[in-house]
Amino acid sequence: MVIVELEEVRKVYPLGKVEVEAVKSVSFSIEKGDFISIAGPSGSGKTTILNMIGCVDRPTSGKVVINGNATKDLSDKALTTLRHETLGFIFQSFNLIPVLNVRENVEFPLLLGKAKGTKAEREDWIDYLIEEVGLTQWASHRSNELSGGQRQRVAIARALVTKPHIVLADEPTANLDSKTGEQILELMKKINREMQTTFIFSTHDAKIVNIADHVIRLQDGNVTENLRKGEALNAGTGGRA
Ligand SMILES: Nc1ncnc2c1ncn2[C@@H]1O[C@H](COP(=O)(O)OP(=O)(O)OP(=O)(O)O)[C@@H](O)[C@H]1O
Ligand SMILES: [Mg+2]
Question: Is 200 contained in some domain?
């Protein structure tokens, strides 16, 4: 089942009198349960694409379809709802709230939307996620007492707390040493398998790209490769399977 589809997506940013064509004409699709890397050098358009999938930015032209919803047909309010109900986010710089403890950081997104289930069910789910990322002993520590790797584990649990279909992570390992970065990616992959959550992460680190089972490679705003492990999809043509 296709969960994300980009059709001839183009994004142009005005920059004074000129325009920067950050994404030229990009088409690809992501299957539910994919563990996919958007790979490419600095300036190739990775963040721009993740922002459009994350409904924080809209394409200049073309179509982005998330879980069956064409984002261009949605109002800002509907986009916000789609973002809350369908997407989880992990950031390069973790973006935790330093004065809150681990548990409170994980809980935070639940305070922004409509509460689902009973309080006891929500608390069990938060405990489960904290255990899943290996931080049970740290649950009552403030996030500013944690290492970078531990902070990113908190961010993973926080991204999952609303039970999103898709987790978006823009260079989630960029502020970590390479060994910790690999551990974080392996943890994301384990959760991807266990919960069938689709993970989309960007990186320019070749070693980390290898952990993905689907790789979209970008260069200057174009897709140069679209490869699902075990099958080659039309490389270089935008790669729509
Ligand atoms: N808000 C903006 N205004 C103008 N130009 C922008 C804006 N955001 C991005 N760009 C330009 O769009 C292009 C793609 O940028 P983008 O941030 O998507 O690349 P990236 O692959 O994420 O790079 P990095 O690896 O450095 O994070 C770049 O040329 C960049 O300068
Ligand atoms: Mg970027």
Answer: yes
Ligand 1 centroid to 186 CA: how many Å?
27
Is 39 within 8 Å of 203 (Cβ atoms)? yes
Give the ligand 1 atom nearest the CA of 45: 18
Q: Which ligand is nearest to the CA of 44?
A: 1
Amino acid at 188: M
The answer on pLDDT for 100 being more than 80 is: yes
Burial of 214 (0-12, 13-18, 19+ CB in 10 A): buried
Residue 40's beta-bridge partner residues? none
**Ligand number with the minimum distance to the CA of 18:** 1
List the end-to-end C-alpha distance of the chain, in Å, as a whole number.
12
Which residue owns the Cα nearest ligand 1 atom 30? Answer: 43
d(CA 181, CA 171): 10
Count up the domains in the chain and report the number. Answer: 1
Q: For residue 232, what pLDDT band results from cuts at 50, 70 and 90?
A: low
pLDDT in tens, 166-193: 999 999 999 999 999 999 999 999 999 9
Domain that holds residue 44: 34-58+73-233
Residue 95 forms part of a structural domain: yes
Mean pLDDT of the chain: 93
Threshold 0.70, pTM exceeds: yes
Has residue 175 been placed in a domain?
yes
